[in-house]
C-alpha cells in the first residue's frame, strides 16, 4: 500500500530520469564549443601530402619485409612524425593532419588519379580542396614515381582494368583506388584494453604462432607501439602549451593522453579521448570511407556513470561530447573527382547509433542517447552521422526528442528500424545476439559490432541500364556500343513474359561478370593492403592470427547495391500496361522513341508519364514489379561467395550515385529522358511521381523485401519545417515513425527545409556555410554540393501542405 | 449502399487528431462564395479540366463523340453536352481531364479509408468531409460504421445543415464532430450562403446536449465572416450553449483560386491569410467571450 503514497524505488528512479532528461534538454551550447566550431568552419581545407611522404620513405626502407609489416612500420612512422596541433580551447585532441579537414593523399591506394587531378582540386565541381603549389611538385618528384605500378589503383587496373571497363555502364565496381572502410571496430574492446593491452594480447598469441601468423602478430605489435607513441606526443605538446597558456584543459589533456598510452580509460573524458585516438589512427592506417563508432550510448555508458558518480555535471558531459562531435567533422575524405560525384560532400561516415534494444529486447536508450541528440541539436553539423534505432516499444519521449532534432533540418538523426533490420541480419547468418547489437556504418550500411568485414560497397548494379540493353539487342542506346547480351529487342519479345525472361538473363550475365571483378579487387586488397591495426580491433582476427583482408573477421560479407527500383518498376509498368496489355503504344514506336530520346515524341512521352501508374503510390501491381526484380537480383547473389569465403548481400541505396548513374542510362520507358537522374536515395519514388502523399509512398516501399536487403536501404523524405513547430505536429510525426516501424521499413531519413532557404543558399553560399542537407545516406554542406545536385535536392517532392 | 465521392486525402493532418485519411463526399446544400472545394458543390459527377496539366494537343476535342469540347488557349467544356463517357480522359496524353466524382459502395469507401490504418496510431483515424457529409448521411453512416468496426476512430466535418434524423444516426458511429458555424446572423447567412442557420444552431445545441465530442470552427474569410461582431457573436453563442466549448478559427487559405480559374469562374474573395499577429487579435476576442478551449494549429 505504501507505493500509493510514496513512489517506489523504481518510480523514484523514473522521476529522476525524467528530471535529468529535462535538464539535458535545457542545456545550452557553451562558449568554448561555439568558438571551436566557428574556428573549424573558418579554416580552409587543404590537400595534404605529408603522410604520403612519410609512408613512401618508410616503404623504401622496408622493402625486404612482408607487406603487413611494411604497412605497420609505415603507420608507426606516420604516428611518430606527422605534424600535430592542439587548439588552446580544445578538450579532445587528435587529427591526422595539422590543418582541419585536410584531404589526405594516400598513394598506397591511388597515386595516378592524384597526378591527373591535383591541379583541379581547388576548382573541381564537387569536394574542392586548396593546394599548396609546392606540394604538387614534391608529389610528382618524390611520391608518384615510387607508386607508379605499385599502388592499388595501378595494380587493379593492370589486373582487371578491361573487365571492369566492359561492364562499367551497368556495374560500378568500387574500392579500386582506396581502402574499403564501412567498418565498425570493437571500440568497447579498445577502451577496455588500450593499445598497451592489445599489444600484450598479440604478444601472448606470438608464442604459438606459425610464421604467417607471426608476421601478423608482430605487425599488430608495431602498430600498437605507434599508437602509444602518438598519444605521448599529444601529451607532450599539451604539456608545452600548458606551460605557455596555463589553461587547465591543456593540463588535463597532457595527463589523459599520457595515461592512455599505457592504460585503459576510466572517466568519460578519458574514454572519449581514447575513442577519438582509435578513429584517427584507423584513418591514418586505412584512409577509408567510414570507420563507425556504432552504439556509443551503450558502451560509453559505464564511463559516463563512473564520472557522474564522481561529480561530473551534465553540462560538462555535454561539452565533452560536443568536443568529440566537432572532432568528427575534422576528418574528411579525399576522393577522385568521379567518385566525389557518386559520394558527394566527402562523407567519412562516423556513424553513431543511439537507442534501440538490448539483447533481451528491452529498451536500450539512456541519458547518453539524449545527450547525443542535444549535441546534434546544438551543432547541426554533418558528422557524426547520427542514427536513431527504433523498435516497437521505443519510448515516446525518445521519439519526440529525436523528432524535434529532425525538425531542425540537419537531416539527423536518420532512423533505423530494429523490427526489420534484426531479422534481415539473422536471415543472413548473423547470430541473434549480434543482430540485436547491430550498428550502422558509413551512410546506411548495416553491420554487427566489432566482428564484421562487410565490404559493403563492393559494387553498384544499375538494373535500369540492364533493362535498356535488354530492350535493344545488348546495344547501349547512348553510345551505340554492344556491351550486353543480344537477346532481341522490344519488338521481338512476343509477350511481356518473354521480355522479362530476357531481362533475367541480362541481369545474370552482368552479375557473373561483376563477381569476377569484385573477387579480383578484393584479392588486391589482401595482397597490398593488410591492416594490422584495424585487425586488432575486429574479432576473431587476433585469435585466428589473420588479417581482416584475409578473412580474419567473424563475419565476412560483400555488398552490392541494386539500382534503381523505382525506375525499373515504372518502366516495366509502362511497357506492360500501355504496350502489351492495352496495346495503346506500338512496340516499334516506343523503341524508336527511346533510342532517339523522345526527340519527336513528346506526346508519347507524356502518355508514358501520365497514363501508366507509378511506383510510390500504393498500387500493388506496379510496386510488385519493383519487388519482383529486387527479389530476382538478391536471390541471384546467393550462389556467389566473396574472396573471404562469405556471402554476398544486397543493398538498396545509391548515396548520390543516382545522378551520375542516371547519366549512363538512355531514355527509359517511364518517360525519363536520357541522362536524367534516377530516383534518389534507394527505395524512394522517382521525384514528383509519388502523388498520393507520404503514407502511400511508405506503403509502396513497405512491399519491398527488406529481409533480403541486409546490406542497407535508404528512403528519403522531404518535409518543411512547419510540421515540427507545434507539439501536435511532433506527435503526428512520431505516429509516422511508429507506422514506419510497424510497416517494417528498414530506414528512413528526413530533409527538413524549404525552397526559399535553398535558393538563398545558392545565391549567397557564404551566409549558409553550415546549412546541411541529407544528400543520401549522409549529410553534407548544401553550399559545397555541385549545382546539379543542389537543383536535384530542390526538385525532390516536398510534402508541402502539412 | 452507394455514395458519390470526389477525393481521398491520405496523410491528412488537419482533419482531426493524429494521422488520418479523409474522404470527400460530393454535394452541398450551401453555396458559400469562398468555398475551398467548388468541385464538391454539386452532387452530380462532372468532367474536370486542369489547365496546368494541359499540353494543348487537342486530342480530346478530336475524340469527343458529343463535340462537347472546344479549344483555344485552353479547353472549354460544355457540361450540358458532356455525357461523362470517359473517351477524352482516356485519350488525353496528359492528366488534364478527369471525371470529378464517382459512385462507390460503402464497403469500397471503407476499404480506401482503412488502407492507411497502420498510420492511425492512438489518435488518428478516418474523417469524412465534403461537400457536405450529411447530404449523403445514410452512406456516410454506413462507411463510418464499417471503419469503426475495424477499430478506427471516426470524425466528420460538417456544416450541420441536415435533418435531425441524420444526426441521430451519425451520433452512433462518429467519435468527433468538427462543425462549422460560419455566420451567426441568420438572414445574412441566408443571403450569402443560400440558406438560413436556424437548423445548424439547433443541431449544434442538440449535439452538445447528447454529450457529443464537438469542435466548432469558423473560417476567417475576408469580407464575409471576419468581422469582430460575427466572431464575437459566435463565441458568445457557443459559450452559452456549452461552457466547455472547443473553438477553432481557420485561417483563410487562398490556394483554391486556381480551382476557380479552372472552372472559368471569378473567385470572389480578395485578401490573404492572416498573420499570427492578426490572429492573436481574434484570440483575444474569444478569450473576452469566455472561450476556455481555443484550438490552435
In words, what does this structure look like?
The complex is a heterodimer of chains A (802) and B (297). By secondary structure, chain A is of the alpha/beta class. Helix content of chain A is 51%, strand content 8%. Chain A has a five-stranded mixed sheet with strand order 3-10-12-13-14. In chain A, strands 4-5-6-16-15 form a five-stranded mixed sheet. In chain A, strands 1-2 form a two-stranded parallel ribbon. In chain A, helix 18 (396-407) links the parallel strand 5 (385-390) and strand 6 (414-417). Chain A is globular, with a radius of gyration of 26 Å. The two termini of chain A are 48 Å apart. The model of chain A is unreliable at 1-7 (pLDDT under 50). Chain B is α/β, with parallel strands linked by helices and 297 residues long. In chain B, strand 8 (125-130), helix 4 and strand 9 (153-158) form a beta-alpha-beta unit. Chain B has helices at residues 59-63, 87-91, 106-114, 137-149, 164-171, 186-193, 198-209, 228-241, 257-262, 276-288, and strands spanning 2-12, 20-25, 46-49, 69-71, 75-77, 97-100, 102-105, 125-130, 153-158, 176-180, 214-219, 246-250, 293-295. The mean pLDDT of chain B is 95. In chain B, helix 3 packs across helix 4 (137-149) and helix 4 runs parallel beside helix 5 (164-171). In chain B, the strands form three sheets. In chain B, strands 7-1-2-8-9-10-11-12-13 form a nine-stranded mixed sheet. Chain B has a two-stranded antiparallel ribbon with strand order 3-6. The interface between A and B is medium-sized, with 30 and 25 residues.
Amino acid at each position: 500500500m505504501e507505493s500509493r503514497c510514496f513512489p517506489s524505488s523504481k518510480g523514484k528512479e523514473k522521476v529522476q530520469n525524467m528530471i535529468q532528461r529535462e535538464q539535458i534538454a535545457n542545456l545550452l551550447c557553451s562558449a568554448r564549443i561555439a568558438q571551436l566550431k566557428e574556428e573549424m568552419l573558418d579554416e580552409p581545407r587543404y590537400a595534404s601530402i605529408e603522410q604520403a611522404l612519410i609512408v613512401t620513405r618508410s616503404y623504401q626502407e622496408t622493402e625486404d619485409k612482408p607487406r603487413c609489416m611494411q604497412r605497420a612500420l609505415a603507420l608507426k612512422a606516420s604516428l611518430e612524425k606527422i605534424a600535430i596541433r592542439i587548439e588552446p580551447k580544445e578538450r579532445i585532441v587528435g587529427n591526422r593532419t595539422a590543418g582541419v579537414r585536410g584531404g589526405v593523399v594516400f598513394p598506397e591506394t591511388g597515386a595516378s588519379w592524384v597526378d591527373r587531378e591535383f591541379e583541379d582540386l581547388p576548382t573541381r565541381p564537387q569536394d574542392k580542396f586548396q593546394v599548396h603549389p609546392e606540394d604538387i611538385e614534391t608529389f610528382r618528384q618524390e611520391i608518384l614515381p615510387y607508386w607508379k605500378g605499385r599502388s592499388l589503383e595501378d595494380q587493379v587496373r593492370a589486373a582487371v582494368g578491361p573487365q571492369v571497363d566492359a561492364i562499367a555502364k551497368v556495374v560500378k565496381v568500387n574500392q579500386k583506388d582506396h581502402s574499403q572502410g564501412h567498418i565498425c571496430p570493437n571500440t568497447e574492446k579498445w577502451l577496455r584494453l588500450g593499445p598497451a593491452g592489445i599489444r600484450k594480447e598479440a604478444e601472448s598469441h606470438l608464442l604459438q604462432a606459425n610464421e604467417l601468423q607471426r608476421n601478423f602478430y608482430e605487425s599488430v605489435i608495431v602498430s600498437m607501439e605507434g599508437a602509444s607513441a602518438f598519444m605521448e606526443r599529444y601529451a607532450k605538446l599539451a604539456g608545452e602549451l600548458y606551460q605557455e597558456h596555463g589553461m587547465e584543459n591543456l593540463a588535463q589533456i597532457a595527463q589523459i593522453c599520457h595515461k592512455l598510452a599505457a592504460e585503459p580509460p576510466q572517466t568519460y573524458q578519458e574514454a572519449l579521448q581514447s575513442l577519438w585516438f582509435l578513429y584517427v589512427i584507423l584513418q591514418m592506417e586505412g584512409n577509408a570511407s567510414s570507420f563507425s563508432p556504432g552504439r556509443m550510448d551503450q558502451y560509453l555508458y559505464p564511463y559516463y556513470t563512473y564520472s557522474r558518480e564522481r561529480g561530473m555535471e551534465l553540462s560538462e558531459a555535454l561539452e565533452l561530447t560536443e568536443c568529440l562531435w566537432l572532432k568528427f567533422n575534422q576528418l574528411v575524405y579525399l576522393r577522385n573527382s568521379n567518385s566525389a560525384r557518386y559520394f558527394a560532400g566527402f562523407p567519412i561516415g562516423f556513424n553513431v547509433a543511439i537507442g534501440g534494444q538490448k539483447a533481451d529486447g528491452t529498451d536500450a536508450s539512456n541519458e547518453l542517447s539524449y545527450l547525443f541528440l542535444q549535441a546534434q541539436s546544438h551543432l547541426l553539423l554533418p558528422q557524426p552521422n547520427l542514427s536513431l534505432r527504433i523498435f516497437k516499444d521505443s519510448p515516446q519521449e525518445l521519439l519526440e526528442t529525436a523528432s524535434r532534432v529532425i525538425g531542425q533540418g540537419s537531416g539527423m538523426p536518420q532512423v533505423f528500424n530494429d523490427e526489420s533490420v534484426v531479422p534481415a541480419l539473422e536471415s543472413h547468418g548473423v547470430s541473434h545476439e549480434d543482430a540485436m547489437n547491430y550498428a550502422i556504418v558509413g551512410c546506411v550500411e548495416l553491420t554487427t559490432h566489432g566482428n564484421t568485414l562487410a565490404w559493403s560497397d563492393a559494387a553498384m548494379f544499375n538494373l535500369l541500364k540492364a533493362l535498356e540493353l535488354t530492350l535493344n539487342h545488348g546495344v547501349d542506346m547512348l553510345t551505340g556500343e554492344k556491351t550486353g547480351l543480344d537477346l532481341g529487342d522490344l519488338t521481338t519479345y512476343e509477350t511481356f513474359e518473354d521480355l522479362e525472361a530476357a531481362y533475367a538473363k541480362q541481369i545474370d550475365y552482368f552479375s557473373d561478370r561483376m563477381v569476377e571483378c569484385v573477387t579480383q579487387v578484393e584479392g588486391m586488397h589482401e595482397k597490398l593492403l593488410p591492416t594490422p591495426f584495424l585487425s586488432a580491433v575486429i574479432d576473431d582476427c587476433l585469435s585466428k592470427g589473420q588479417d581482416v583482408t584475409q578473412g580474419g573477421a567473424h563475419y565476412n560479407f560483400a555488398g552490392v547495391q541494386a539500382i534503381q527500383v523505382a525506375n525499373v518498376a515504372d518502366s516495366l509498368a509502362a511497357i506492360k500496361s500501355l504496350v502489351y496489355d492495352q496495346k495503346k503504344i506500338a512496340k516499334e514506336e516506343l523503341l524508336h522513341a527511346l533510342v532517339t530520346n523522345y526527340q519527336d515524341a513528346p506526346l508519347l512521352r507524356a502518355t508514358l508519364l501520365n497514363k501508366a501508374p507509378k511506383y510510390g503510390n500504393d498500387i500493388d501491381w506496379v510496386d510488385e514489379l519493383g519487388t519482383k526484380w529486387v527479389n530476382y537480383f538478391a536471390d541471384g547473389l546467393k550462389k556467389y561467395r566473396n574472396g573471404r569465403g562469405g556471402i554476398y548481400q544486397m543493398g538498396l541505396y545509391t548515396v548520390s550515385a543516382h545522378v551520375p548513374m542516371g547519366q549512363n542510362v538512355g531514355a527509359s520507358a517511364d518517360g525519363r529522358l536520357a541522362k536524367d537522374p534516377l530516383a534518389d536515395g534507394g527505395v524512394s519514388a522517382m521525384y514528383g511521381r509519388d502523388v498520393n502523399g507520404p503514407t502511400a509512398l511508405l506503403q509502396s516501399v513497405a512491399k519491398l523485401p527488406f529481409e533480403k536487403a541486409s546490406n542497407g536501404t535508404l528512403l528519403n523524405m522531404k518535409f518543411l519545417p512547419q510540421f515540427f513547430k507545434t507539439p501536435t505536429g511532433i506527435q503526428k510525426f512520431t505516429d509516422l515513425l511508429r507506422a514506419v516501424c510497424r510497416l517494417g521499413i528498414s530506414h528512413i531519413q528526413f530533409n527538413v527545409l524549404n525552397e526559399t532557404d535553398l535558393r538563398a543558399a545558392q545565391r549567397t553560399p557564404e551566409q549558409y556555410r553550415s546549412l546541411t542537407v541529407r544528400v543520401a545516406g549522409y549529410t553534407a554542406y548544401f553550399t559545397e554540393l555541385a549545382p546539379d545536385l543542389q537543383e536535384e535536392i530542390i526538385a525532390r517532392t516536398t510534402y508541402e501542405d502539412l | 449502399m452507394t455514395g458519390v465521392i470526389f477525393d481521398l486525402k491520405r496523410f491528412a493532418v488537419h482533419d482531426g487528431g493524429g494521422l488520418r485519411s479523409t474522404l470527400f463526399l460530393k454535394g452541398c446544400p450551401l453555396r458559400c462564395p469562398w468555398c475551398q472545394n467548388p468541385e464538391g458543390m454539386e452532387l452530380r459527377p462532372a468532367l474536370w479540366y486542369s489547365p496546368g496539366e494541359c499540353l494543348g494537343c487537342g486530342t480530346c476535342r478530336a475524340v469527343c463523340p458529343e463535340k462537347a469540347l472546344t479549344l483555344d488557349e485552353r479547353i472549354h467544356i460544355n457540361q450540358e453536352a458532356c455525357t461523362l463517357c470517359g473517351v477524352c480522359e482516356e485519350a488525353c496524353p496528359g492528366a488534364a481531364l478527369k471525371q470529378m466524382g464517382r459512385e462507390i459502395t460503402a464497403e469500397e469507401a471503407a476499404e480506401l479509408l482503412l488502407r492507411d490504418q497502420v498510420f492511425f496510431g492512438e489518435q488518428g483515424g478516418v474523417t469524412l468531409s465534403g461537400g457536405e457529409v450529411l447530404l449523403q448521411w445514410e452512406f456516410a453512416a454506413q462507411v463510418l460504421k464499417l471503419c469503426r468496426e475495424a477499430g478506427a476512430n471516426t470524425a466528420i466535418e460538417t456544416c450541420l445543415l441536415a435533418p435531425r434524423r441524420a444526426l441521430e444516426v451519425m451520433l452512433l458511429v462518429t467519435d468527433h464532430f468538427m462543425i462549422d458555424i460560419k455566420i451567426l446572423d441568420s438572414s445574412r447567412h441566408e443571403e450569402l450562403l443560400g440558406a438560413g442557420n436556424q437548423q445548424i444552431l439547433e443541431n449544434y445545441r442538440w449535439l452538445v446536449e447528447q454529450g457529443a465530442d464537438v469542435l466548432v470552427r469558423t473560417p476567417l474569410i475576408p469580407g464575409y465572416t471576419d468581422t469582430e461582431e460575427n466572431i464575437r457573436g459566435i463565441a458568445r453563442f457557443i459559450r452559452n450553449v456549452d461552457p466547455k466549448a472547443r473553438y477553432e478559427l481557420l485561417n483563410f487559405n487562398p490556394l483554391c483560386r486556381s480551382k476557380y480559374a479552372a472552372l472559368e469562374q471569378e473567385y470572389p474573395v480578395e485578401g490573404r491569410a492572416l498573420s499570427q499577429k492578426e490572429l492573436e487579435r481574434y484570440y483575444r476576442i474569444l478569450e473576452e467571450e469566455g472561450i476556455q478551449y481555443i484550438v490552435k494549429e
